[in-house]
Amino acid sequence: MFNLCMFTGDATSKESSPFINSSTSDVEKSQQYDGKNMALFEEEMDTSPMVSSLLSSLANYSNLTQGSKEHEEAENNEEARKKTVQAPRMGTLMGVYLPCMQNILGVILFLRMTWLVGAGGVLGTFIIVFMCCSTTMLTAISMSAIATNGVVPAGGSYYMISRSLGPEFGGAVGICFYLGTTFAGAMYILGCIEILLVHVLSEAEAALLNNMRVYGTIVLSFMALVVFVGVKYVNKLALVFLACVILSILAVYAGVIKTSFDPPFFPVCLLGNRTLVSKGFDICAKTIEQGNATVTTKLWRAFCDSEFLNATCDEYFTSNNVSQIQGIPGITSGILAVSIKLCVPAVLDPEATVTNTNRYVMADITSFFTLLVGIYFPSVTGIMAGSNRSGDLQDAQKSIPVGTILAITTTSFIYMSSVILFGACVDGVVLRDKFGEGVNGNLVIGTLAWPSPWVIVFGSFFSTCGAGLQSLTGAPRLLQAIARDSIIPFLRVFGHGKANGEPTWALLLTACICETGILIASLDAVAPILSMFFLMCYMFVNLACALQTLLRTPNWRPRFKFYHWALSLLGMSLCLTLMFLCSWYYAIVAMVIASCIYKYIEFCGAEKEWGDGIRGISLSAARYALMRLEEGPPHTKNWRPQILVLMSLDGEQSVEQPRLLSLTSQLKAGKGLTIVGACVEGTYLNNQPQAQKADQVCMKLMEVEKVKGFSQVVISSNLRDATSHLIQAGGLGGLRHNTVLVSFPKNWKQAEEHHRCRNFIEVVRETTAAHLALLVTKNISAYPSNGERFTEGHIDVWWIVHDGGLLMLLPFLLRQHKVWRKCKIRIFTVAQMDDNSIQMKKDLMTFLYHLRFDAEVEVVEMHDSDISAYTYEKTLVMEQRSQILKEMHLTKNEREREMRPNLYQCCISLFTMLFTVIFLCSCLREWENLNQSNVRRMHHAQELNGVIVKKSKEAKLVLLNMPGPPKNRNGEENYMEFLEVLTEGLNRVLLVRGGGREVITIYS
């Protein structure tokens, strides 16, 4: 089965089969299926293609997002937008290896690598480089597995993470990756300006920070203009910039070889153990001999108040000698043994910085191990360059793993060898000179290069320019991809651009964010920021691979086989460790930003279904939990109402009692399962559309009422069987409903509603047989909605019999909701003649105290009384009506006509009974023939109703034990009459019938 991701114009993925019912004309379709040997499958012709057609479509499939090549065509030719995208032709070398090399090698290597070796020592720096390179290598292995698990359109890490971990993680990490790429552009521009101001135009060094802000803004504006005009200029210059990088690196290696037999002469002047700025003197000495006289030098005049030998000089200058050392002693000098252990942390001295700023080479920042990690890590980023170009590759599933891993191996070798070679060739004093002030303003790495330091200056300058352009080209497209996925609503405006698809608005936002990085005006301060964002992105790439591997989903079949979940978890751990090593507060800020974006996407409702691993986790966790629940019923302390709500639908498939869901929502403090069940009468084949409509109606109403649960619609030949199916088969495994919520049938005495009466009683019987709790709402239309608030009132519980404690638990759950929060609970219980009501009240209060329920308690005494004539007459009318309907087997219309005279006669009899003794004498014989059990039930219902109405008529809700159903069908109408009498005169009643097990306990 083929599962391919298609993208529409707005980059919304369609997880469907893109080749079925495509834009094939009817004529072509008829020709396509024409064949006598296909007659057996002619019924499937409209929905299923022939295999030959599918394979042909697969071979020609090129539905990828627009890449840089297509942007160039759209700019150069108006007809290009109408052309079919040709099959990509880029191989591993040009498509993956060289772009990764260009993105990985850059500004840190040329501007900070020597300083890192000097500040951290060869061994310490080598550990940093090894950790960072190992992190990117493990990430590349995980990325290769994901990238080779199917077609990955151009979108890079964002596409892989979002399709592997879901839209929430994808959006959060995608934004972080976008910010990282944007700040990387700021870092490259700052590096470019640093080279320009410090090493090319040295006289502009005076107000360095402000100059970097001004010139950086100018360069950013120019680069943004170039990207806006067209990416074709960036792409054409990419190879030139890469050539500059390679030539510069080769020049360094050539210089290292040359030092073995002819080290370059770069003298460094020291005063004591302090390096002197070379611009402050011409001769490295305090005095020189001219003829027979001793003459002071320019260096003397820099530290003394006059040029004479008796001048007053700086104390440190007077007490220390001036010496000159060779800055580049060469690879054969043996200084590696010293440098490998040497680690001199640079500590800022605020006073010295002010007084000696033009004399000594001073540290501009306090260096320590974790800071060095944060500054170095951006130098190993850029491993996603190949996957970002997957749409332009001839064989992406082969090129991405090979090219990326080979590029990381090459660059790791360059970085690790550079650490050792710098420590072996360059003196530590020079290595710690960040801006080359002690070697005539040269780049320190340039002093090692052959044939000239200017090779490194110009090479690094152009490489930083190229990397900055690449960042400003890639970041807006990443933001555009996120915006077009519509997972973050307020970013949708950035999904639009020029007619050829160029992300104009995204480029504008990127330039503004990049400007904030430039205003920081310090490469060392910007580097840890983008390290956070890249590390977070790499961490989630590893997590995605580990997750997919551990879940073992059927669709996880990467062509790249050299991966393992343990390697991915190790890579994820390294990323997390490096984040906190670089800067723990930056790491927390980055995580907070990602978490806020995650929750925002989740809040807005990410309606994307990309078959991601988080859904896979949910499935696996649900399966595991269900298997655990099968071990046995939950303990009383873990019992919670798992509610099956039985909804009635009208002819238009609309819900008749929406207040049932309001009550369900108000019981959500129970934290249980909710299943909303509905029934459709008919056959499955004919009524499936109606069932789907009913399901959508139920889900929409659940969303409105904020009920979290599931909807289940059952189709059956009759409603009675459908309801029975819901009660029997609802839920899954151990996660099944234990409570049924249903509304008391309205107007059940009318003939056309008689079937509802029968269905209701069957529900009562089946829940009793299944040992399920039953909640029956009376006058459901009077129940409050979720928007209403009771500012006062009572929830009255009439505890007649104990059947598990659900009657006590329900008011507690209701009071957790804002509708019932200000209502007070009153619990009434009934005492018989031989009960001690005072002791009963004390015992009940003690019981509630142990249950941690706050409620008022009252014991109501019911005395035995004689059965009134009204009770006899009401029972007589009830039995007569039931008997007549049963014997005559009338049709519905006849029952309706028959019912009205009976009701009329009943009213006449009741009226006459109260005032005429003659009527009582005439009915005496009939009363003696009545079923005495029915008389007692009717008498008890009336007596109990009278007490309840007297105490709870003004209550906001009355909860009451529900009597059991009749054992046979003869007394069904009588049972309904008893319930009607029991609840007469009450506004809102919730009849509760327990499931036969304890649901509350006094124990912890």
Automatic annotation (TrEMBL):
TM region(s), chain numbering: 169-202, 214-231, 238-257, 365-385, 405-431, 451-469, 529-550, 562-587
Membrane topology: Multi-pass membrane protein
Catalytic activity: K(+)(in) + chloride(in) = K(+)(out) + chloride(out)
Positions of the Amino acid permease/ SLC12A domain: 96-261, 360-644
Gene Ontology cellular component terms for the protein in this record: plasma membrane; synapse
Main localization category: membrane
Domain SLC12A transporter C-terminal residue range list: 658-776, 790-1004
Signal peptide (UniProt feature, chain positions): none
Keyword Electron transport: no
Pfam families: AA_permease, SLC12
Family: Belongs to the SLC12A transporter family. K/Cl co-transporter subfamily.
NCBIfam families: 2a30
Protein's UniProt name: Solute carrier family 12 member 5b
Native source organism of the sequence: Cyprinus carpio
